[in-house]
Amino acid sequence: ISPPSPKHHQWHSLSSPPPSSSSSSSFFTFKVNSTTFTFTNKCANTIWPATLSNSGTAPLSTTGFILPSGTSLSIQAPTGWSGRFWARTSCSTTLNHLTCATGDCGSGQIECSGSGATPPATLAEFTLAGPSSTKDFYDVSLVDGYNIPMMVVAANGGCESTGCAVDLNNRCPAELRVGEGCRSACEAFGKEEYCCSGVYANPSVCKPTVYSEMFKAACPRSYSYAFDDPSSTFTCDAPADYSIIFCPNPLDPSSSSSFGEDDGSSSPSQKSSRDGTTEPTTKGVVLEGGESWLANLAMGDDAPSSRKNFSIFHQFLLIFFLIYLLF
Questions:
Q1: What predicted TM-score, i.e. pTM, was given to this entire model?
Q2: Closest of 140, 32, 18 to residue 77, by C-alpha
Q3: Per-domain residue ranges for the chain?
Q4: pLDDT band at 327, cuts 50/70/90?
Q5: pLDDT tens digits, residue range 101-134?
Q6: Is the link from the previous residue into 239 a cis peptide, with omega within 30 of 0?
Q7: Are 139 and 223 within 8 A, CB to CB?
């Protein structure tokens, strides 16, 4: 799949706040035109999805809403819209100020009003076809870390789905854990080689790391680091509609082989917070629950569809870590 233009990946510019909207209905639609996004919450608990439009694109009719377990909500986006979606979790209100354990946008309200997610947060990113293009581009990104399983399913049967159906919080290395989420190596360590910045701001120099390879093995279709486009960015002929599913069933045949297989625990785990900057270590590949997942990862058994992503060097490196842990 050919990667989109560089604009597709400039996700940190803020747009003007779109108008607020609210409703008590579990399913409702905001009519604009072009593309319909339907958000479905299959998690055990209420979540607070949020939207962020890129600068230069028309804002959506809402920037945040409440989505109880088992409900859906649809909004529409205009031609050429570009932006991202994510879920805020474990939110509570104190003195009329909303705070969330993960994905908090800092607005203190249900509406994020042009503010982005605080990492870690699983992101669904879109660039819809405009006047000069006929295809939509989309991906599910773990570049800003992970907080909740997510899938993007195109209504057009000829277009591919993408996402991460597994609970990566159960597989998060100790030094990446924070609260109820799993940070990216860039967020945790702040080093150029993990962030693909500075002298590493080039795909020929910034390569996958042990951390991004672990995410890639568990969720082979998700965007695991800054230059992961060839295997993780998808296209669909416009116009098309999309479903964004939070906490999809990891045992569903449509998700188990393409989006990673879970270990049977589908609800995000509760982690204790780690403050400050940490350093990557060999011990960092020890995952909660023992070394079994690392063993499968080293042998390529956890995600068969992603084996082609591993070079002989990376497989050797992971096997070396496994031997180190065992002896």
A1: 0.72
A2: 32
A3: 6-277
A4: low
A5: 999 999 999 999 999 999 999 999 999 999 888 9
A6: yes
A7: yes
pLDDT per position as a tens digit, 229-239: 777 999 999 99
- Distance CA(55)–CA(109), nearest Å, equals 21
* Tokens 């800003």 -> residue: 144
Q: Specify the amino acid at residue 18.
A: P
Would the CA dihedral through 3, 139, 85, 38 be positive or negative? Answer: positive
CATH of domain 6-277: 2.60.110.10
**What are residue 47's DSSP bridge partners?**
67
* Cα(131)–Cα(67) distance, integer angstroms: 33
Integer angstrom CA distances of residue 41 from 27, 146, 269: 11, 17, 17
Q: Cα–chain-centroid distance for residue 319?
A: 27
Residues 6+ apart with CB under 8 A from 61: 18, 19, 21, 30, 32, 75, 76
